[in-house]
Amino acid sequence: MSLVAWIALRRKLIDDLKTYMDDSFSFELADNLLLYEPYQALFPAKQTRLLQLWDEICLPHDRAKQEFGSPLTVIGFDVDPNRMLATLPPHKKAALVAELRRFGVSHRRWSLREWQRLAGWCEWSFNVFPLLKPGLSNVYAKISGKQQPRALVHVNNAVQRELQWMSDHIERSDGLLLYRSLDFSA
Questions:
Q1: Is the bond into 89 cis (omega within 30 degrees of 0)?
Q2: Which residues of 88-116 are buried (b: 16+ CB within 10 A; e: fewer)?
Q3: Backbone conformation region of residue 21, classed left if phi is above 0, alpha if psi is from -120 to 50, else beta
Q4: What is the pLDDT of residue 184?
């Protein structure tokens, strides 16, 4: 995909194209649309030109994956370029809050694998809730050095407090505001 992105940027002059794994994305003015004939649909100009490049080099693509608008789901996050905000979709946010509260019941025991799964889910959410990273300190301290995936690990009061703190903040947070100030006037 890197070579294709290079061709798009350097040879086809599709400005501001970004690539993450096999996903490409950019921005465009809302009214700068072009017809993409194979799908009989209007798309942002840069996206249309990228699709035409993919056709030219016979790179397959699906209509269902050709998204644009606001917000967009990017690697599981809702990204709203108009509000300059990235957050979890409401159903994922509610599921994470519920799991943190379920897991954080004092004196409960969970397998090491379940602890690791919860920590991984939280780490993923830190892309849009970066200030909550300290909320896993006691979780990592609790599972440090343990290696048996099915071994049961006790939830202590410190872990319970941190998970409650995280769930409360996630529930109240709008997500990650990409710009603190949107007023650029002098």
A1: no
A2: beeebbeebbebbbebbeeeeebebebbe
A3: left
A4: 57
pTM: 0.74
Q: What is the mean pLDDT of residues 13-19?
A: 89
Place of tokens 């050709």: 66
Write the burial class of residue 17 (CB in 10 Å: 0-12 exposed, 13-18 middle, 19+ buried). Answer: buried
CB 65 within 8 A of CB 43: no
| Sole residue written with tokens 């940027």 | 9
**Vertex 49: Cα angle to 46 and 51 (nearest 5):** 110
Q: Over the chain, what is the mean pLDDT?
A: 91
pLDDT digits (tens, 9 = 90+) for 24-52: 888 888 899 999 999 999 999 999 999 99
> Of 134, 172, 133, 137, nearest to 156 (Cα)?
137
Residues 6+ apart with CB under 8 A from 185: none
Are the CB atoms for 82 and 169 separated by under 8 Å? no
* pLDDT over threshold 90, residue 126: yes
The pLDDT, as a whole number, for residue 18 is 84
Taking each continuous run of H as one helix and of E as one strand, the counts in the chain are 6, 10
Rounded to the nearest angstrom, the gap between the alpha carbon of residue 30 and the centroid of all alpha carbons in its chain is: 23
